[in-house]
Design brief:
The chain is mainly α and 106 residues long.
């Protein structure tokens, strides 16, 4: 291959075409400035994270409180249903009031 002026001109023309096509897809300074203007700062992100953390903590606390209320109500229901203390007291009273009649002989 001979290194001629035509060879170098074609090579340079290809490079210039590639640069031209790259310029079309590259962001301009104005594009970058617009992106920077829309970006959140570290402080804004920190504040958003703090707000979301607070919301999540409140949600979890409310959930636990609701769950505790339900459990307390359920325990009360179970105590009322299965508590034998009242039945035992009633039986003790009945026993004390019981007056046996004639003894039964076998």
């Amino acid at each position: 291959m001979e290194l001629t002026q035509e060879y170098f001109d074609k090579g340079l023309a290809n490079i210039v075409d590639e640069i031209g096509s790259l310029k079309k897809i590259m962001a301009t300074k104005d594009d970058i400035k617009a992106i920077r203007a829309e970006m959140a700062t570290k402080e804004e992100l920190k504040n958003q994270l703090a707000d979301q953390s607070t919301e999540l903590k409140e949600y979890v606390q409310e959930s636990f409180a609701a769950q505790q209320v339900w459990m307390d109500e359920r325990f009360r229901e179970l105590i009322v249903k299965y508590d034998v203390r009242q039945r035992v007291e009633k039986l003790e009273k009945e026993f004390l009031e019981f007056k046996p009649g004639k003894p039964v002989h076998a």
